[in-house]
Amino acid sequence: MSKIKRNIKDLFEINKIYAFLTKKEKILIYLLLVCLLISSIAELIGLASIIPLVEVIKDPISVDNFLIKNYLDSIFELTGIPRINIAIISSLLVVIFAYSARIFSQFFILFTSAEIGIVLHNKALSNYLKLPYNKQIGEITDNLPYFLTKGITQVVSGIIFRYLNALSSLILFLFLSGGLLIAEPRITVLFLFSIIIFYFVINVPFFNFLLRGSKKIYSYNKEHLDSLTGLKWFIKQLKLYGIEEKYYYNISNLHSKLRKLNTLNNFIGTYPRTLLELLLILVIIIIISLNAQSILTNFTSRLIFCLLIVQKLLPLFSTLYASFSSLIENKYALKDLLIYLRLSYSKTKISVDVSYKKISSIEISNLSFKYPKQNRFIFSEISLSIDLNKYYFLKAPSGYGKSTLIDLILGLQVPNKGKILYEG
Predict the structure, then answer these.
(1) For 187-222, how does the pLDDT look when each residue is reduced to its tens digit (9 = 90+)?
(2) Which of 92, 103, 87, 83 shows the shortest CA–CA distance to 46?
(3) CA angle, 40 then 165 then 144, to 5°
(4) What is the pLDDT of residues 370-386, one digit of tens each?
(5) Rounded mean pLDDT, 88-93
């Protein structure tokens, strides 16, 4: 249980992204929330307009609702349009506005996700480029191409978009279920309770599989990309040693594992909706079969409204479930991206602000240097005098510090001990 709690807590890592957004993206998020509220209210009103519309069609004169009756009478007196036509036109306009707002909201979600992705990409890249050279060596540079291409895509499409889409579905769900609760409290409680229990029972057995699978998918993706990206560096060795088939087998096997895990994860994220729809249809058929006469004779506008709400709530639950699965699947991409977003940088201690034309010699005095996390010194108290009017030939096996010495002279690396003096 503690592992599940820890992993659920990891899902809220997305909130930490907010701190890295600019004022523009924060305003976009607030505007999106307003847009989602308006579209959700409009959609509820559009569906609720079915109730008075049916009542008006039944009897356009004797309408129970005082406000609707006054509205119909006022428009009729001004325009002479029959009350039934007024009700139909009004209902159509409300529904068209509601779904136009919903379509705009869907585009707004995609647009906001893209803008956030641009900011995160630029922030991570900027942080990396501002690091001192000695901090850029190693995994931080090796992993950068993956994180700023496929990794950022996973975060934007698999987390940010899914998160905003789930927020949209949740807001609409609250409004629609509220409307259903007012119309039919017992049906609402029974429906929501059944749906929640259903998704809980369906999801729990696969929760740990999703966690393990998502970690493997992320690892396989990165390994697959790294292997193909680095191919140009060892294609000659593959030919010389005749190991193309072994390389092919390894890459093919890796990609096969990746595809199979993706298939299972996608299936787990989508099949509950189909199963749920099947169960609901079976329940409806059974209820109608047992109470056919009473249901058909009392088929009211309120019942139509309830059926419309229920058919709207099913996709919302499916969206929330799919979003939850996607957040689990891509959480490791977010964790790695946060590493780059949190990079702290400082100016190097060495600053050589002089033209090479003014330097005649370089003196290295008792210099010692080793890379971080290494016990062995590459250089230990070496001294060297370099006359820039002469040519020097530096010879040593690979890994003995030729490039490191140049980096030290150029000020890209900082020695642990000793001095480098520029004279002239």
Answers:
(1) 778 777 777 777 677 666 666 666 677 777 777 877
(2) 92
(3) 155
(4) 887 778 888 888 888 88
(5) 83
